[in-house]
Amino acid sequence: MRVFAVSDIHIDFPENAAWFSNLSREEYQDDVLILAGDVSHSLEDLDRPLTALARCFAKVFYVPGNHELWVIRDLETLSSLEKFQKVRAVAEECGASTRPQLSPEISIVPLFGWYDYSFGEPGPELKERWADYLACKWPPAYGVREITSHFIQMNDSVPTVGSGTVITFSHFLPRIDVMPDRISERNRFLYPILGSSLLDRQIRRIGASIHLYGHSHVNNRTTIDGITYINNAFGYPAEEAFASRRLLCIYDDEGIERASP
């Protein structure tokens, strides 16, 4: 068995949808896919790619990203928390699991999250440009810290895993130092909305050796204090020059990591 990982596939773009529509139906039948969020902002368009991927792989694990919680373009009568539950229900109906799978050999644990400004406070430019501030709708008195706390608490039921390989994954970043040094100062204004350090506490409590994340569209692999953090974002079509735009095998029976064409 192999475990492949990808995030931020954004099938709202025809180029991205075509790539995933052309995935082999035979090559991955014994394998697992981890899909770390941002499939589509439209609930109506979510079932098609998730169903297709569930037919390609023996098992698909998935967490919603921030784009899935946008309500400005559909379901405007719902809050983003209500849409989150609908997204999970659609995923499960399509054969994509949002629940942990624990076993003595390999455990895969989805972690929900948001951002709580633990990576820094947002400046005026971010507040004006970041789409989530307009496209999401939250219950009264819910700021980013309350939103993050809500999702983090959903992960509390996952026990510490004592044996085998443990892979956790989230859409949001668990720590800011997984971002590579090459990021320019000009682009670091986005850091406050990338994730939450609360996620990293849960990753370490659970006992992960590998953590997959998405959201930043900055592909990277780094090991910090014994945990390997991996981002393999498919990304937007315009990001082809630096995004991998392929599946990445992060685990197999021989422990080999490699890309899939």
Question: Please, could you describe this protein's structure?
Answer:
There is one protein chain. The chain has a single domain (3-260), classed as Purple Acid Phosphatase, chain A, domain 2. Helix 2 packs parallel to helix 3 (80-94). The chain is 25% helix and 18% strand. The protein contains 7 helices and 11 strands. The longest helix has 15 residues, at 80-94. It has helices at 14-21, 47-56, 80-94, 124-129, 132-135, 144-154, 197-206, and strands at 3-6, 32-35, 59-62, 96-97, 106-110, 165-169, 210-213, 220-224, 227-231, 247-251, 258-260. The strands form 2 sheets. It has a 6-stranded mixed beta sheet with strand order 4-3-2-1-10-11. A 5-stranded mixed beta sheet has the order 5-6-7-9-8, covered by helices on one side. It starts with a strand and ends with a strand. The chain is α/β, with parallel strands linked by helices.
Extract low-pLDDT stretches. 257-261
What would CATH call the homologous superfamily? Metallo-dependent phosphatases
Strand element count: 11
Order of helices and strands: EHEHEHEEHHHEHEEEEE
Adjacency order of strands in the biggest sheet: 4-3-2-1-10-11
CA-CA gap between termini: 18 Å
Beta-strand percentage range: 15-25%
CATH class, named Alpha Beta
Assign a percent range to the helix content: 10-25%
Largest beta-sheet details = 6 strands, mixed
- Overall spatial form: globular
Structural class: alpha/beta
Average pLDDT confidence is: 93
| CATH topology descriptor | Purple Acid Phosphatase, chain A, domain 2
Task: Please tell me the total number of domains.
Answer: 1
Radius of gyration: 17 Å
